[in-house]
Write a structure and sequence with these properties.
single chain, alpha/beta, TIM Barrel, 14 helices, globular
Length: 305
């Protein structure tokens, strides 16, 4: 059987609740688990992201982020993963921790390099869309300075508030440097967002499930070979899917779109990749699940380095 691979796992969304609560105690902050873990429906992407922001704000040192990375890798290993691509936003982490963003990349990459576990770990640097296109150029240049430890680049944040077209110059720079690109789209906004994301030349799309609302887009995705990084539990929690039972996974698979099952934010969504496959088993057949596993393995940025 094809090994388990998670292509879309946010480091900031992988902070163990127990670790976050330990950090909160250190700070004297009154934080409850409910503030860190999503309910069945959060009422949109932004309330969901607020859970990530709450946990991340409790990690105030580079050592904290080194530990968070090591624990995230250990959790991936414990779930039986052969490979995981951890994505993280240096600019965001630097802002909440009060440290330098270049130092964040160094701390995270050191933790990944010294994990010492039999799981392949690659890193994807995130450009935060909420800070606008000018900041995106600065963030892109920073990622290029650390291209030796990064397998890819991503655009994430408030999808509906900051359309992907604003970030074409930053991602042209990244793509011209030979760094593979994935873009968050079709999660908090509809098919137009996915079409616009495709104009940036990504090899993968983060989520993309609302692309199922446009039959022509489904045909295009199937023909293009772009892989969608789909996280069923997260999609329901953010409202990208109305319910688990009506999730778009089956429609994407039926249309011939390449899909990889992912966790997105395992701590916030209270899930594991093995559990996502269990959930997906109620939506597609075993042959489709095998194909999804193969697509995930084939779409790794790290495998192409």
């Amino acid at each position: 059987m094809t090994p388990l691979v998670d292509l879309h796992r946010h480091l900031e969304g992988s902070i163990r609740p127990a670790t976050a609560l330990e950090f909160a105690d250190r700070l004297g902050a009154a934080t409850r688990r409910e503030a860190l873990v999503a309910a069945g429906h959060e009422g949109g992407l932004l309330p969901y992201l607020a859970k990530i922001e709450t946990a991340s704000a409790l990690a105030r040192t580079l050592d904290d982020w080194h530990r968070i990375t090591a624990e995230a890798i250990a959790d991936a290993h414990d779930d039986g993963l052969a490979a995981v691509e951890l994505r993280f936003a240096p600019e965001f982490i630097a802002g909440v921790a009060g440290v330098d963003a270049d130092d964040v990349i160094d701390a995270v990459s050191d933790a990944a390099a010294t994990a010492g576990l039999p799981v392949d770990v690659d890193l994807i640097g995130i450009i935060v869309r909420d800070q606008g296109p000018d900041s995106a150029l600065v963030q892109a240049r920073r990622l290029l300075r650390h291209a030796d430890v990064l397998a890819g680049a991503d655009l994430a944040g408030d999808e509906a508030g900051y359309p992907v077209t604003l970030f074409a110059p930053a991602f042209r720079m990244v793509r011209d440097a030979g760094i593979p690109v994935t873009i968050h789209a079709g999660e908090a906004a509809g098919p137009r967002s996915v079409w616009d994301a495709l104009s940036l030349g990504p090899k993968r799309i983060g989520h993309g499930v609302r692309g199922a609302e446009d039959p022509r887009l489904l045909e295009h995705l199937a023909a293009s070979g772009v892989t969608l990084e789909v996280a069923v539990t997260s999609n329901v929690q953010t409202g990208a899917a109305r319910s688990r039972e009506s999730h778009q996974l089956a429609a994407l698979v039926k249309a011939g779109v390449r899909v990889a099952l992912c966790t997105d934010n395992p701590s916030v969504s209270d899930t594991r990749l093995s559990r996502e496959y269990e959930v997906a088993a109620s939506l597609v057949d075993e042959a489709s699940l095998d194909l999804i596993r193969r697509h995930a393995a084939e779409a790794r940025f790290g495998a192409a380095r």
